[in-house]
Amino acid sequence: TNAPAVQYPAISVEWEVTVSHARTAFKCQVTTAESLAVSLMQEPADIWECRVAKGSEGR
Fold first, then answer.
1. How buried is residue 26: exposed, middle or buried, by Cβ count under 10 Å (0-12/13-18/19+)?
2. Cα–Cα distance between 17 and 50 in angstroms, integer?
3. Is 6 a residue whose pLDDT tops 50?
4. What pLDDT, on a 0 to 100 scale, did the predictor assign at position 37?
5. Which of residues 35 and 59 earns the better pLDDT score?
6. How many domains are there within the chain?
7. Total-model pTM
8. In degrees, to the nearest 5, what angle opens at C-alpha 30 toward C-alphas 28 and 32?
């Protein structure tokens, strides 16, 4: 089964996301992909850049 969009693992994995908020840059850590999506939906207009530094690919 190949997903056309980016698919996140549905397991408890620590995601390190770097979010650039206007002039302030901070890091937010989430335990699940859903938390990551929620974090992005919290203030979508304020989030300029979001990059996943660490993830669980294959393992």
1. exposed
2. 6
3. yes
4. 58
5. 35
6. 1
7. 0.19
8. 155
Q: Which domain holds residue 26?
A: 15-54
CA distance 5 to 55: 16
d(CA 2, CA 58): 14
pLDDT tens digits along 29-40: 444 555 555 555
DSSP class of 4: S
Inter-CA distances, 24 with 1, 17, 38, 58, Å:
40, 14, 20, 33
- Asked, for residue 30, whether it belongs to a domain, the answer is yes
Share of the chain above pLDDT 70, in %: 0
Q: Is 7 a member of any domain? A: no
